[in-house]
Amino acid sequence: MIGVIFRSGKALAVLCFLAMAGCTATYSNHGYVPSEEDLAELVVGVDSRATVDDAIGAPTASGVLSDGDYYYIRSRFRTFGMFRPEVVERQVLAISFDDSDTIRNIERFSLADGNIVPLTRRVTDSSVVSNGFLRQLLGNIGNIDPSELFN
């Protein structure tokens, strides 16, 4: 009898340990922002876009135009159990260029500077998602205009 109680107590302790271990926070990092040492090599008003590419690398996000400003973005997310991931830290390094492609300004932003900027992908929604193949095929039956048949 004592052995059964002892084994069930051990099993309960193991289950409690596993339940607590499953609820620990998990952190993940996304993106890249150059360090201050790398940025110290760049001189505002002197260095060009090519120098930035050589010193710290080209960013994954740039301005709207092909010759736009550079944006380096790093995000840190915390996932806790079954809950939605939460943004814990976000850094944005913006390097802007003037018309002659020399560095005009270097700015660093974080979550403390303002609102969280959601980084999302925009995907064009197709109008045929809700319609199956047969519905698309047979959907135009009855929509025939007889005046267009003989023109």
Mean pLDDT: 78
Instruction: Indicate the proportion of strand residues.
Output: 25-35%
Enumerate how many helices there are, as a single number: 4
What is the gyration radius calculated from CA atoms? Answer: 28 Å
Question: Which segments are poorly predicted (pLDDT under 50) over 5 or more consecutive residues?
Answer: none
Structural class: alpha+beta
Question: What letter string, H or E per element, gives the SSE order?
Answer: HEHHEEEEH
Topology:
Blueprint: H1 2-22, E1 25-31, H2 36-39, H3 49-55, E2 61-62, E3 70-80, E4 86-97, E5 103-110, H4 133-138
Antiparallel strand pairs: 1-3, 2-3, 3-4, 4-5
Describe what you observe in this structure.
The protein has 151 residues and is an alpha+beta fold. It has a domain at 25-114. It is 25% helix and 26% strand. It contains four helices and five strands, in the order H-E-H-H-E-E-E-E-H. The chain has helices at 2-22, 36-39, 49-55, 133-138; strands at 25-31, 61-62, 70-80, 86-97, 103-110. Strands 1, 2, 3, 4 and 5 form a five-stranded antiparallel β-sheet that branches. It is flat. The mean pLDDT is 78.
Brief account:
The protein is flat.
Q: Which characteristics define this entry?
A:
5-stranded antiparallel β-sheet; 4 helices; alpha+beta; 25% helix; 151 residues
